[in-house]
Amino acid sequence: MKANAMSNFEIVAREDFSDVTYLLEVRHPLMSKAAKPGQFVVVMLNEQGERIPLTIADFDRNKGTITLVIQAVGKTTRQMQLECRVGTSLYAMVGPMGMPSPISHAKKVVCVGGGLGVAPIFPQARGFKEAGAYVIAILGFRTKDLIFWEGKFRACCDELILCTNDGSAGMKGMITDGIKVALAGHSNIEEVVAIGPPVMMKACAEATRAHKIKTMVSVNPIMVDGTGMCGGCRVKVGDQVKFACVDGPDFDGHLVDFDDLMTRLQRYTKDEKVAHERWSESCRMTRQVGPSALDALARVRAPQSELLELPDPFEDAPGG
Amino acid sequence: MAKKKTIRTIPQERTPMREQDPQLRAKNFEEVACGYSLEDALRESERCLMCPDEPCIAGCPVGIDIPGFIQKIGEKNLRGAYDILTDTNLLPSICGRVCPQETQCEGVCTVGESLEAVAIGRLERFVGDNAIKEGWVNIPYIEPNRFRVGIVGSGPAGMACAADMAKAGCEVTVYEAFHQPGGVLRYGIPDFRLPNAVIDAEIDNLKKFGVKFECNTLVGRLFTIEQMIDEMGFHAVFVGVGAGYPTMLNIPGDSLNGVLSANELLTRCNLMRARDFPNFDTPVPIGKRVAVVGAGNTAMDAMRVSIRLGAEKVYCIYRRSRTEAPARAEEVHHAEQEGVEFHWLTNPVSVSDDGKGSVRGMRCVRMELGEPDDSGRRRPVPVAGSEFDFETDLIVYAIGTNANPIMGQTSKLKLNKWGYIGADEHLATSVAGVFAGGDIVTGAATVIEAMGAGRKAAASMKTYLGIRDPELPYLSAEGGGAGTLFGIDTRERNFARVRVA
Ligand SMILES: Cc1cc2nc3c(=O)[nH]c(=O)nc-3n(C[C@H](O)[C@H](O)[C@H](O)COP(=O)(O)OP(=O)(O)OC[C@H]3O[C@@H](n4cnc5c(N)ncnc54)[C@H](O)[C@@H]3O)c2cc1C
Ligand SMILES: Cc1cc2nc3c(=O)[nH]c(=O)nc-3n(C[C@H](O)[C@H](O)[C@H](O)COP(=O)(O)OP(=O)(O)OC[C@H]3O[C@@H](n4cnc5c(N)ncnc54)[C@H](O)[C@@H]3O)c2cc1C
Ligand code: SF4
Ligand code: FES
User: Fold this and answer.
1) Which of A292, B77, B215, B235 has the most CB atoms in a 10 Å sphere around its CB?
2) What global pTM score does this model have?
3) Ligand 2 pocket: which of B268, B447, B449, B451 to mutate (most atoms <8 Å of CB)?
4) Is B137 helix (H, G, I), strand (E, B) or coil?
């Protein structure tokens, strides 16, 4: 537990929204003061860990904490799901990174969040509300059991459109169907902000293009440093190449080359699989150790047969 | 007194340094150059003529008393040699390894006019390594003052400034965005050239001076430079955030998987330990046929890392010729020994894909040297109709870096037209109390120049804070810098009384 002793990024609260989605509240008083909507952190679980970017889904300046909502999709995010308990610490957390989302003076705004994009859209929805806008939130989940933060959104939005792929809650359909409903009901929408898997953001941008409504998206390329030093996070925006970590992560959705983004996200698929297989193997070994680990593992491992096959984070994206 | 040495009486051959066998070392990340033994060092010290005009000192960016420390080696007084070195150079074992000596001190060494120059860098490294081995550190007698100094960036510029300000009695905190300090020394330069243990030792020395390191801190975004001065109680701030932002070629195919910057490759491999994947989680792309574009130190590092990661073929693609290659001569030589294939006067035109978003090959064009350009080097121009294709699955760009934009985005610091932080000759920026130096002011340069800038900024900072005689370097622009590029006044060198540890 060397890492825990040396660092002070303590986890003060945790909530599990579903088998794959969990919330961590991490103590960092300075960052809770500095954080603005749209910014992200880079965390390392332990010394051997990878640096992974996560959006600051909320911040509490009084408590001095920031909130991360994480979807377990691969080695690091699953290991965090297993190991990040209240009272433990992250090895590293740095931020807030990226340019804050420009909260414009638009009077009527649609905030779209799908899958892992639901949490990150929250600070923007709240930001727009605080700036006096009429805010319509559209949230997409695969099914009813995965829904979280509905109340939180209701509290800061004027309208909420909930979509599930299977129709188990809210309207049945893709997120783009939700956008159609919003567009049909309001002729004066000035801006759409969409966060989610690239396929979803692409679909949203396509849905608004014909209406010429300004559409901002938050891209999620693979990152290393998050400080503009490696260029791994570069994305094509119009005819320019931008580094998402310092020039973004928010860009004009009508200009982002999503196909390029999606291809680039697959750079390390093979290695990610190796890392995950190895880790799963070592988890299997420690299975006898204690009931709590076993317990958590059982949850991580559902659906059973999927263990060796990495779930495609885009696949279960509503709107995809 | 020994007889006066002459060029005829000194050992004629430069003392060779033991190196790991190229075949063997191409498969490991251990240090390539093994360093001098005491016998080697004594013999090499014999070769110094102790020239009265000391051209080597003028050739050194920080003006190390080179014959002075070499003489001490000759007297077997390694501690004395170390003391002389550390009067001016905080990081002898690092600089001994990575400085481009052939264009600095060794380039003007008198012996070099007729024989091979004295191996000043190797001797410097020998003394520095010995100090680490023996646990020597010159902890000066520090009289605390009431000043607090903030340093942004823990590269050589930040480290040097931190050391000087701590020695002057200030309370110094260094903020670093990464989870480990050291800057390029840590994330860029690979272990086989500069082992982590050496960096750790130098950082530990700084901690012994009372310097505090705060990693995981992205200044500008977590708090701004202005906040450091206005709210956090820092009396002065030094900004040494490096150049960072890598340049891409902007040719078709640039964004294919398998095209990456040398910074990304090296950071994954060095800082994130991807070479130990999957024991460490971070992956690194491993190419069979790797093409590295560029011929600077960064390019050489990328090539040699690729070889060690298991590439079958590594090509160096450079648009000028070997004489213009900016890398240290030793690095080019080592890369060649390890099997890198050099393609001088060759420029990439486009990258072709395999239909699945990855790199399949590269199209290049042959170049020839035309008229000299601004840098005085002959400008390469394409030879019409000379395009050719070759197969490669990984392309690494090592063609330079631009200014990191974060400081400009988040502070009122004035930038110059290229986006670097604007600073006057004393390294003061447009914001009172804020100084800047290193790559973020000059553009990508060298470790020793960054270190020199850190020390120069420290001198100006002391004047600004009124810590010492205010007439010293800040006011005497012409006089102060006598003979040294960075104007560290010789009177400045040894101001702190040294208590032997
Ligand atoms: C600005 C930004 C904000 C993000 N915010 C959130 C968030 O709030 N919640 C959340 O759950 N996820 C977020 N992500 C995505 C998250 O970083 C990845 O899911 C995570 O890195 C996956 O790591 P892994 O080891 O668990 O999975 P892996 O097995 O490594 O990869 C699984 C998938 O994640 C993608 N991925 C892998 N490494 C990275 C990386 N370093 N950066 C981005 N994507 C990667 C890969 O394309 C792969 O398809 C964000 C990404 C970015 C760039
Ligand atoms: C691969 C490679 C090989 C090289 N080889 C040699 C060589 O052999 N010999 C030689 O002389 N030179 C070499 N150089 C050049 C030399 O390393 C640099 O000139 C030198 O390190 C510059 O020092 P610096 O202190 O200005 O910046 P850096 O060493 O770049 O350090 C800057 C530090 O600041 C941190 N930082 C950036 N932004 C922030 C922020 N907002 N808040 C907090 N911290 C921040 C960075 O993470 C970094 O750690 C090489 C460079 C590279 C990339
Ligand atoms: S120039 Fe060469 S020989 Fe002369 S003092 Fe310097 S190192 Fe010695
Ligand atoms: S993550 Fe490295 S440049 Fe953006």
Assistant:
1) B235
2) 0.82
3) B447
4) coil
Residues B319, B381: Cα–Cα separation, whole Å = 9
Record the tokens describing residue B126, joined without a space: 């020998």
Give nearest CA residue, ligand 1 atom 44: A222
**Spatial distance between the Cα atoms of A285 and A41, rounded to a whole number of angstroms:** 32
Q: Which amino acid is at A84?
A: C
Predicted confidence band of residue A308 (pLDDT cuts 50, 70, 90):
very low
What pLDDT score was predicted for residue A97?
Answer: 93
Hey, what amino acid is at B150?
A: G
SS3 A262: helix
pLDDT in tens, B299-313: 998 998 888 888 888
Tell me which residue of B210, B398, B168, B178 sits closest to B306, measured CA to CA: B398
pLDDT digits (tens, 9 = 90+) for B173-199: 999 999 889 988 888 888 888 888 888
Residue B438 CB–ligand 2 contact under 6 Å: yes
Hey, what are B419's tokens?
Answer: 């986006």
| DSSP code, position B324 | G
d(CA A55, CA A38): 7
Letter string b/e over residues B35-46, b meaning 16 or more CB atoms within 10 A of that residue's CB: bbeeebbbbbbb
Taking the C-alpha atoms of residue A59 and residue A40, their distance in angstroms, rounded to an integer, is 11
Model ipTM value: 0.78
The residues with which A217 forms a beta bridge, in sequence order, are A194, A251
Out of A195-209, B16-30, B144-158, least confident range: B16-30
The pLDDT of residue A316: 38
Single-letter code of the amino acid located at B100: P
Q: Where are the beta strands (DSSP E) in B205-355?
A: 212-214, 236-239, 259-261, 289-293, 313-317, 341-343, 346-353
Contacts of A94 in chain B (CB under 8 A): 177-179, 216-218
Given the CA of residue B67, which atom of ligand 3 is nearest to it? 5
Residue A61, SS3 per DSSP:
coil
| Residue closest by Cα to atom 47 of ligand 1 | A265
Q: Residue A230 and residue A223: Cα distance in Å, rounded?
A: 8
